[in-house]
Amino acid sequence: MPYVNIRIAGTLSREQKARIAEEITDTLERIALKPRSYTYIAFDELPDENWAIAGKLLDED
Amino acid sequence: MPYVNIRIAGTLSREQKARIAEEITDTLERIALKPRSYTYIAFDELPDENWAIAGKLLDED
Amino acid sequence: MPYVNIRIAGTLSREQKARIAEEITDTLERIALKPRSYTYIAFDELPDENWAIAGKLLDED
Amino acid sequence: MPYVNIRIAGTLSREQKARIAEEITDTLERIALKPRSYTYIAFDELPDENWAIAGKLLDED
Amino acid sequence: MPYVNIRIAGTLSREQKARIAEEITDTLERIALKPRSYTYIAFDELPDENWAIAGKLLDED
Amino acid sequence: MPYVNIRIAGTLSREQKARIAEEITDTLERIALKPRSYTYIAFDELPDENWAIAGKLLDED
Fold it and tell me: Where would I find the 4-oxalocrotonate tautomerase-like domain in this sequence (chains A, B, C, D, E, F) (predicted)?
């Protein structure tokens, strides 16, 4: 541990995921004192029609 | 918040997801007094071979 | 399945959880055609200091 | 319940998932005394570029 | 990875958790060929009133 | 969205959680272009006996 799960609607580029993973791992090392090698980060990219805010799917007009 | 994650095996139509999201958001507003705009709902639709009940994958004969 | 996970900051009364579970199970039966006995619902009630929106913990002034 | 979520990077064959589901259901029956029919197991197979360890995506050289 | 999340209503003894963790780690090593040191297992023990099956909380008469 | 779930064994101070939430929200704003107000972060702090690595609970000698 830590295990971090990042869930978004839509997609991220590989480059975005690489930079986010690097920054979050760094944040947890500096602030929570977790060794870098312990941090797992899993990204879930969901279709817009699988995410709702305020009762409306995100692909709605 | 709230964050609601609905996980099923198989798929739902867009219309089913829209109606489920609307009803659950309404439920949480009426009963838990959560403002509609705060409620996130994420649907995960898994292949039948990725879900097991009673030790058997759901696509098993 | 379905498995539904409802995560909120703060607490719900037992009565609120009972009514929410009943309504969501009903929603999934009517709209997604899932038999009532298959639906699992798990509630996670997190302390306000364990939930952040917009970069601020919810217990912040 | 129990609800078990197994998340990996990469894929498993159908046969691997079937055997893992059978063994874990058996483990929970023997040790936790949970009836087999109650145990749900959901597998999530993520692309290597969606999983990071030690700040590096798994598809990195 | 793998990351395994086991969610139950009620509690498990420390001994039960130790034996379950050992067996599941072994299962993933033998069948999915995942090195033992990579497997994280997290147990969530929920109060009976936070889990519903078939629309009823588990602490209901 | 995004919804970020950070799961650790042990505890974090309120100050650590506040700083981690701020940094991760900032990371997702800069790199993934997600408006700050959309980002939810939920922390789960598990007892050491509820987390296993390599088949051993973390509270084991």
Answer: 2-58
Nearest to C41, CA basis, from E10, B21, E49: E49
- Here the ipTM equals 0.96
Distance from CA of D19 to the nearest CA of B (A): 9
In CATH, the architecture of D3-57 is 2-Layer Sandwich (3.30)
CATH 1.10.15.40 fits B3-53, yes or no: no
Instruction: Pull the structure tokens for residue E26.
Output: 């072994």
Terminal-residue alpha carbon distance, chain E:
40
Distance in Å, alpha carbon of A22 to nearest chain F alpha carbon: 10
Q: Which of E6, E19, E34 sits opposite D4 (nearest CB)?
A: E6
What is the Cα–Cα distance from A51 to A33, expressed in whole angstroms?
33
Kindly report, residue by residue over A23-40, the tens digit of the pLDDT.
Answer: 999 999 999 999 999 999
Contact A40, A2 (CB under 8 A): yes
> Parallel, antiparallel, or unpaired for β E40-46 and E3-9?
parallel
Cβ contacts of F56 on chain E, cutoff 8 Å:
18, 21-22
The neighbouring-strand residues paired with F53 are E40, F56
| F6 to A1, F11, F21: CA distances (angstroms) | 9, 12, 10
Hey, which CATH number is domain E3-54, 3.40.50.2000, 3.30.429.10, 3.30.300.130, 2.130.10.130? 3.30.429.10
> Chain B contacts of F40, Cβ < 8 Å?
1, 3, 40
Q: Which residue of E has its CA nearest to D2?
A: E8
**Tokens standing for residue A54:** 């305020």
Residue C1: the pLDDT is: 86
Structure tokens at C47: 């302390």
Three-state DSSP class for D55?
Answer: coil
Segment B12-33 mean pLDDT: 98
